[in-house]
Amino acid sequence: MSRFIETIKINKGEALNIERHNFRMNQTRHHFFDDVSDLDLINYVADIPNLPGDKTLRCTFSYSKEIVNYKLVEYKIPHIKSLKIVADNTVDYSYKYTDRSKLNTLFEKRKNCDDIIIMKRGFFTDSLFANLVFYDGSKYFTPANPLLKGTKRSRLIDEGILFEEEIGVDDLVLFKFCGLINAMLDLEDCRIDIRNIRS
């Protein structure tokens, strides 16, 4: 049975940010399994039959010691306009597990909001499925201690576009909007007005 997933964006036939996905996947495999050699997801993408060249696709690989299977779907940007702050000091998602039951339990507390902001020990971490970014009018900031260090997040930090900072409820007044980023979502894709973040 697979224990982990890695989701990549395929845009018009091109697998994006593949090196960082490989790094995270192989780092996970080496942590949990003995005697494994690195895998390259680009080889598995190349073997996908009849890959559409005119669409944006989400390709999710399930794996344990080896790749188990993959699921390919056309991707549409989610419509998220409000976030509910939920607190949990015990939640852990430091590896991209297939088991997301704890996160889903927190998501059920969103009330009439579209998604959640998970707060741990007084500071923001992530949403249900994405890393958070906050824009103050000139710079983008991201929580210093996310539940999962995303591949898009790490690339933007390395490029000097995104800056790590501990961010809590009292800091929200400093920002114009909150954004969601992950392998599928870019900085401009999903923005939430700060006034639509609810405690």
CATH C-level of the largest domain: Alpha Beta
What is the residue-averaged pLDDT?
A: 96
Percent helix, as a range, is: 10-25%
- Describe the biggest sheet? 5 strands, mixed
Strand content: 25-35%
N- to C-terminal separation?
38 Å
Number of helices: 4
Enter the CATH topology name of the largest domain. D-amino Acid Aminotransferase, Chain A, domain 2
Q: H/E order of the elements?
A: EEHHEEEHEEEEHEEEE
Kindly name the structural category. Answer: alpha+beta
Number of strands: 13
CATH architecture of the largest domain: Alpha-Beta Barrel
Overall radius of gyration:
17 Å
Q: Could you name the ranges where pLDDT drops below 50 across 5 or more consecutive residues?
A: none
Q: In summary, what is this structure?
A:
By secondary structure, this protein is an alpha+beta fold. It has four helices and 13 strands.
Task: Describe the 3D structure.
This protein is α+β, with helices and mostly antiparallel strands. It has two domains: 71 residues, Aminotransferase class 4, branched-chain amino acid transferase, N-terminal domain (D-amino Acid Aminotransferase, Chain A, domain 1), CATH 3.30.470.10; 116 residues, Alpha-Beta Barrel (D-amino Acid Aminotransferase, Chain A, domain 2), CATH 3.20.10. The protein has four helices and 13 strands. The strands form three sheets. The chain has a five-stranded mixed β-sheet with strand order 10-9-8-11-12, with helices on one face. A four-stranded antiparallel β-sheet has the order 2-1-3-4. It has a four-stranded mixed β-sheet with strand order 7-6-5-13, with no helix packed on it. The longest helix is centred in the first third of the chain and has 15 residues.
